[in-house]
């Protein structure tokens, strides 16, 4: 078994690493207004706590536990911030995918056709920027898609709308309608998949499902009118396309939130946090705020491990001896046996050995 | 949305952002900068070392090397700079290479502006400043006045070579993974103490309370580390943390299997070796004082007085901080938590910074008497915990090996070292590589005598030995030999390869002088006639020293210098040179000649007058030609202003012949005549007038006296005249330059015509990049002649340490006891006879000598004692002689004439 001070050094080092990573996660999303201020404050609080622990020069078991506790909370903070980052990344990826699908539809339409230089130039510009945004995502630099001073998804969106206006004037209405329908056809499966991944308890699932029906209906109308009334078809297909784009936008966010909530619940479960909230239920509802609030309170106070998880660590520290664990901690002998019984029932314990006098 | 396209020209904002991003990534910036400088330096070195003194590096090759080294996808330059938040979008738009090129070009411009590089002839090729300087050296002539055409002046240099090497330092900084926070070793010690048994002296004095006392001491050391050190000293290097832990635990516990009798600390110059052994000895002393153990705890031995003084000041600073933390800065010598003393013949001149003066008043403490120090500015500012009293039993005693030899035998040593029940715990030999040859034999024997005396005072106390050096390869083996212990009992404390940073480089220029020769130089009208028609001539001699003289001032006026504030963090000028020669006579001659050339202003014969817009300095400068054809577009004063003159466009024979030192353009730094000083017999004096100078010199020439421990922050250049005596010594000498991590020191070695000089010129890599075997330090610790002398001295040690003998009566004689005059020779005889068996054991134990050897020494001592019975002046009363001698000894000042004379003689002998 390693010496206490070596354990202590290793624990502090790992706590410091978690905190450094947490800071780096935070920096990657700090411009998105996506991180609750309490989480930001906890970065500094943990930093101060680690500095206090660095000042300790006589390491007792209690100090070691304090350090382990701080390391656990730093790890939790880093995990939460990584989850926040993942949510933002998922949203950015979805936005860039949507812009790409949208643009590809127009790109297919303009290829091999006579269009004005300004329209051609707009196409090149969007192609170039979409390519850059995709490269940023490939390099895991999602945040720069939003935080650079040269382009943004919103600006590409505006350009695509201007392009749409140009194309409406420059290309045949029938071909335009077909292009819009093909874009909608590309978007719909993604939206469906997204809705499918939302839990039934998530209120947004049914709400989006209802409104998506409208989009589909307009898509069918446009197809029908394409044969009979081209002007009306153009009008309807544009509304349908807008609806599909909006649904892609909203559903991708709902999915990101649902994933975010489930990951937070998984963190609570894996860390064995003793939380009264029914976190599985909250995750199913996609109730991110409640889950975040619980985790923040854990990070900012002290990790309340489940009794089983804590006892497991203590028994490991004392080579499995119940006597020594009881002597060294606040656990009573009987309380340990009681908890062991529960752990045994949960298949956490392979065997129990008894040593007679 | 932006309308930029990939082919858009690079705007200023982009350049600025790219440059800011690059320079803010300090490690990447340093690494790229160093590699570019290395590429240029290597290209120039390759040419110069092949005899092309006009060597350059093509920008294309430098850029390609930069791309190869730093533009791979996973290179830090790409991941941390090009793909940083600030640049990634720009890089995606323009491509890696274009942005990398912007940064590369900016960096080259910066290096040219800073004088590291210069464009040569055009902007497609660059040369390192050192290579340009080497070019001037290669073409240097013996010019003594402007009267003679330079083409008649003899060339002084046969060949030149250059080299450069990386400079490494232990990694420091509390956020660096390979460094250690202060508390870490303290925690580890506290844990080890739990299962350890106390060292004998603590068991004896503290008993069961020792663990608590250790813990309290560590708390205090923790406070000292956190609050008492300069801000930039915020952590320990990993090897310093190991040193603190190991040395302290070894000293306060009973030696277990991990304990070692000795530790040897090795690290680069300026790498914190002193702190590595001082901090644990400070902690030991605090603990010992807590335990009520009085007397000296550590004897710190240095090979030179200057170094003693320097280290006395350093230790004083740490001890002052600790005493201050304990509210005892005004305490008396006996009450202060920690005390220190210095003992050598020149200790009377020691000065210390006054800790009582505030930042505005820069007070200096001077020795008031042997008891304390007093501030020059304010006599109320008194320090009593530092002393020069030789008999004072201070916690730390700083001395030379030579003084220690004397203290072992005299009453001062008796009082300082052996008057308490617990003898010193530590014996430290700093700069231990110096102890080779006779100096090493002597110190090894002094150590054996010291160990013997330590053992006599407290047989159970385990002494701990520490050696330290920057330039030793066989560290454990040598340490074992000099301390007289098994190599397996020595621990080596040194930074591992991954605990070091490469911070920059150092440069070397090796100059091979022409063979000495007589040269006839035409003067007057003869200069304009064919040789056969010369009527007026002057003979001149071109010697190796002539070459050194011209190089000495060329070096100063053409080397790259910096002034405080020129770059962030630069607080000292970097503009001085320290030169080494190996004889006192040469120091004076060389210093005198160089000072004379400066007073005559010979360097001005090579000023770039056209660039400077001056007249009449360089008689050969085609000034009018070069200032008349300037292009107003570039706001140039001269065609050769921004670049040395291109031989294809505007050829300048003066530059091509090395008679224009083009880089000599800074009026403050390059164009002022320097003040030359020499250091000899412990004194720094003006090379011309001989007047004592303090810090007012530009070039200081010395013997080996300043080879170790002379740390002046402004020294950026060092030179060595003739072959060094050994490689470790040379490494120490060049280590005096560039004390700050960011410095790029230059060392010039001027080699003459001797076979040794030729050998070193052709094997210059032994000096610039010495292999391990070159840094092995030989030591014949058992040399029987030297040992016999120390065995004799050890007999005197014996009487000095033995309680049953009145050592004062033995050596000072009856005069002091008032019962007579002269040494009490009968008493000495009685004591010698009575103690002979013990003395025999003493010598056997100290030197492990054979019975025959001991017999021989005892016989000779006996004969000596017998000879003392002879009258000083047969037939006459010798009382007046002894009275005079006694009075002379009693009345002399601490640094009286006898001491001075002896010390001066001794120093001459060492040098």
Question: Care to give the gist of this entry?
Answer:
The complex is a heterodimer of chains A (357) and B (911). Chain A is 80% helix and 0% strand.
Q: Could you explain the architecture of this structure?
A:
The complex is a heterodimer of chains A (357) and B (911). Chain A contains 14 helices and no strands. With 357 residues, chain A is mainly α. Chain A has a domain at 306-357. In chain A, helix 2 (37-55) runs antiparallel to helix 3 and helix 7 (173-197) runs antiparallel to helix 8. The radius of gyration of chain A is 28 Å and the shape is elongated. The model of chain A has no long low-confidence stretch (mean pLDDT 90). By secondary structure, chain B is α/β, with parallel strands linked by helices. Among the domains of chain B are: 12-138, no CATH class; 157-167 and 505-513 and 543-598 and 674-770, 3-Layer(aba) Sandwich (Rossmann fold), CATH 3.40.50.300; 608-660, no CATH class; 784-870, no CATH class; 879-911, no CATH class. Chain B is 42% helix and 15% strand. Chain B is built from 33 helices and 27 strands. Chain B has an eight-stranded mixed β-sheet, sandwiched between helices. Chains A and B meet through helix 1, helix 4, helix 5 and helix 6 of A and helix 5, helix 8 and helix 10 of B.
């Amino acid at each position: 078994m390693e010496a206490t001070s070596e354990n202590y050094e290793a624990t502090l080092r790992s706590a410091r690493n978690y905190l450094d990573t947490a800071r780096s996660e935070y920096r990657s999303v700090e411009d998105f207004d996506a991180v609750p201020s309490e989480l930001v404050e906890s970065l500094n609080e943990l930093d101060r706590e680690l500095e206090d622990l660095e000042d300790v020069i006589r390491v007792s078991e209690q100090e070691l536990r304090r350090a382990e506790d701080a390391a656990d909370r730093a790890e939790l903070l880093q995990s939460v911030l990584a989850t926040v980052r993942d949510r933002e990344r998922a949203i950015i990826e979805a936005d860039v995918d949507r812009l790409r699908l949208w643009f590809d539809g127009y790109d297919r339409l303009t290829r091999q056709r006579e269009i004005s230089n300004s329209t051609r130039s707009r196409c090149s510009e969007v192609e170039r920027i979409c390519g850059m945004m995709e490269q940023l995502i490939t390099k895991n630099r999602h945040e720069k898609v939003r935080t650079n001073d040269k382009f943004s998804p919103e600006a590409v969106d505006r350009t695509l709308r201007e392009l749409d206006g140009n194309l409406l004037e420059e290309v045949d209405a029938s071909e335009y309608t077909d292009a819009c329908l093909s874009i909608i056809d590309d978007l719909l499966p993604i939206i469906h998949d997204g809705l499918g991944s939302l839990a039934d308890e998530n209120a947004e699932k049914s709400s989006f499902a209802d409104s998506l029906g409208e989009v589909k209906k307009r898509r069918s109308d446009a197809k029908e009118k394409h044969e009979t009334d081209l002007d009306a078809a153009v009008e309807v297909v544009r509304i349908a396309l807008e609806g599909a784009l909006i649904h892609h936008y909203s559903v991708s966010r709902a999915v990101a939130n649902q994933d975010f909530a489930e990951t937070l619940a998984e963190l609570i479960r894996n860390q064995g946090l003793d939380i009264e909230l029914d976190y599985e239920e909250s995750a199913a509802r996609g109730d991110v705020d409640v889950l975040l609030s619980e985790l923040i309170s854990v990070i900012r106070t002290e990790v309340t491990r489940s009794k089983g998880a804590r006892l497991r660590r203590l028994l490991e520290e004392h080579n499995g001896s119940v006597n020594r664990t009881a002597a060294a901690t606040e656990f009573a002998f009987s309380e340990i046996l009681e908890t062991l019984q529960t752990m045994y029932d949960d298949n956490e314990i392979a065997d129990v050995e008894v040593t007679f006098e | 949305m932006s309308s930029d396209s990939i082919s858009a020209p690079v705007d200023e904002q982009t350049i600025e952002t790219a440059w800011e991003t690059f320079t803010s990534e300090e490690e990447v910036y340093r690494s790229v900068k160093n590699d570019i400088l290395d590429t240029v330096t290597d290209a120039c070195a390759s040419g110069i070392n092949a005899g092309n003194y006009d060597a350059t590096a093509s920008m294309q090759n430098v850029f390609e090397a930069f791309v190869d080294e730093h533009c791979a996808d996973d290179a830090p330059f790409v991941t941390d700079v090009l793909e940083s938040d600030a640049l990634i979008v720009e890089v995606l738009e323009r491509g890696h290479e274009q942005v990398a090129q912007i940064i590369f070009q900016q960096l080259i411009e910066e290096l040219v502006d800073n004088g590291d590089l210069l464009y040569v002839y055009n902007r497609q090729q660059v040369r390192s400043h050192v290579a340009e300087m080497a070019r001037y050296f290669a073409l240097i002539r013996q010019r003594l006045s402007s009267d003679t055409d330079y083409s008649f002046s003899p060339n002084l240099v046969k060949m030149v070579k250059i080299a450069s090497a990386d400079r490494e330092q232990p990694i420091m900084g509390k956020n660096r993974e390979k460094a250690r926070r202060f508390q870490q070793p303290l925690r580890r010690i506290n844990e080890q103490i739990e299962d350890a048994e106390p060292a004998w002296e603590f068991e004896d004095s503290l008993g069961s309370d020792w663990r608590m006392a250790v813990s309290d001491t560590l708390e205090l050391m923790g406070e000292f580390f956190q609050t008492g050190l300069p801000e930039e000293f915020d952590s320990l290097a990993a090897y310093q943390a190991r040193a603190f832990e190991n040395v302290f635990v070894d000293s306060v516990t009973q030696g277990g299997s991990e304990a070692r009798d000795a530790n040897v600390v090795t690290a680069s110059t300026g790498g914190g070796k002193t702190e590595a052994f001082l901090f644990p000895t400070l902690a030991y002393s605090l603990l010992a004082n807590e335990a009520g153990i009085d007397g000296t705890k550590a004897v710190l031995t240095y090979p030179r007085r200057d170094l003693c003084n320097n280290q006395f000041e350093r230790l004083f600073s740490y001890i002052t901080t600790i005493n201050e933390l304990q509210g005892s800065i005004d305490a008396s010598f006996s009450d202060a938590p920690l005390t220190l003393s210095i003992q050598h013949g020149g200790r009377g001149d020691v000065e210390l910074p006054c800790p009582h003066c505030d930042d505005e008043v820069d007070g200096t403490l001077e020795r008031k008497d042997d008891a304390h120090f007093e501030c020059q500015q304010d006599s109320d500012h008194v320090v009593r915990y530092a002393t020069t009293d030789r008999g004072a039993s201070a916690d730390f005693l700083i001395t030379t090996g030579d003084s220690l030899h004397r203290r072992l035998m005299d009453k001062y040593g008796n009082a300082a070292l052996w008057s308490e029940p617990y003898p010193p715990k530590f014996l430290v030999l700093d700069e231990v590589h110096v102890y080779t040859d006779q100096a090493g034999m002597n110190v090894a024997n002094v150590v054996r005598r010291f160990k013997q005396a330590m053992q006599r005072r407290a047989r159970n106390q385990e002494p701990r030995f520490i050696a330290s050096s920057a330039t030793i390869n066989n560290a454990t083996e040598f340490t074992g030999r000099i301390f007289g212990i098994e190599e397996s009992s020595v621990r080596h404390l040194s930074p591992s390869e991954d605990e070091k940073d490469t911070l920059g480089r150092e440069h070397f220029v090796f100059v091979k002088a022409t063979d000495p020769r007589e040269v006839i130089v035409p003067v007057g009208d003869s200069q304009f006639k064919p040789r056969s028609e010369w009527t007026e001539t002057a003979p001149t001699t071109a010697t190796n020293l002539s070459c050194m003289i011209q190089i000495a001032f060329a070096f100063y006026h053409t080397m790259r210098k910096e002034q405080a504030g020129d770059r962030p963090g630069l607080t000292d000028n970097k503009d001085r040179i320290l030169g080494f020669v190996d004889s006192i006579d040469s120091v004076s001659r060389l210093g005198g000649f160089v000072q004379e050339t400066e007073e005559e202003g010979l360097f001005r014969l090579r000023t770039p007058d056209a660039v400077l817009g001056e007249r009449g300095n360089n008689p050969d400068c085609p000034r009018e030609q070069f200032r008349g054809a300037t292009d107003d577009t570039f706001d140039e004063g001269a065609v050769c202003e921004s670049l040395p003159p291109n031989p294809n466009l505007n050829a300048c024979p003066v530059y091509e012949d090395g008679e224009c030192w083009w880089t000599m353009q800074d009026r403050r730094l390059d164009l002022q005549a320097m003040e030359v000083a020499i250091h000899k017999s412990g004194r720094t004096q003006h090379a011309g007038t001989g007047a004592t100078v303090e810090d007012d010199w530009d070039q200081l020439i010395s013997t080996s006296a300043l080879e170790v421990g002379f740390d002046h922050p402004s020294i950026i250049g060092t030179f060595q005249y003739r072959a060094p005596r050994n490689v470790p010594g040379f490494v120490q000498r060049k280590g005096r330059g560039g004390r700050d991590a960011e410095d790029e020191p230059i060392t010039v070695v001027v080699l003459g015509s001797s076979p040794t000089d030729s050998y070193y010129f052709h094997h210059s890599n032994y000096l610039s990049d010495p292999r391990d075997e070159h840094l092995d330090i030989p030591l014949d610790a058992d040399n029987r002649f030297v040992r016999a002398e120390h065995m004799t001295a050890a007999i005197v040690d014996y009487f000095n340490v033995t309680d049953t003998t009145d050592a004062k009566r033995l050596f000072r004689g009856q005069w002091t006891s008032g019962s007579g005059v002269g040494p009490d020779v009968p008493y000495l005889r009685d004591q010698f006879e009575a103690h002979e068996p013990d003395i025999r054991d003493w010598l056997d134990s100290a030197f492990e000598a054979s019975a025959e050897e001991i017999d021989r020494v005892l016989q000779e001592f006996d004969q000596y004692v017998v000879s003392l019975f002879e009258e000083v002046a047969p037939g006459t009363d010798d009382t007046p002689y002894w009275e005079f001698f006694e009075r002379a000894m009693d009345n002399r000042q601490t640094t009286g004439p006898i001491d001075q004379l002896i010390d001066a003689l001794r120093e001459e002998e060492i040098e």
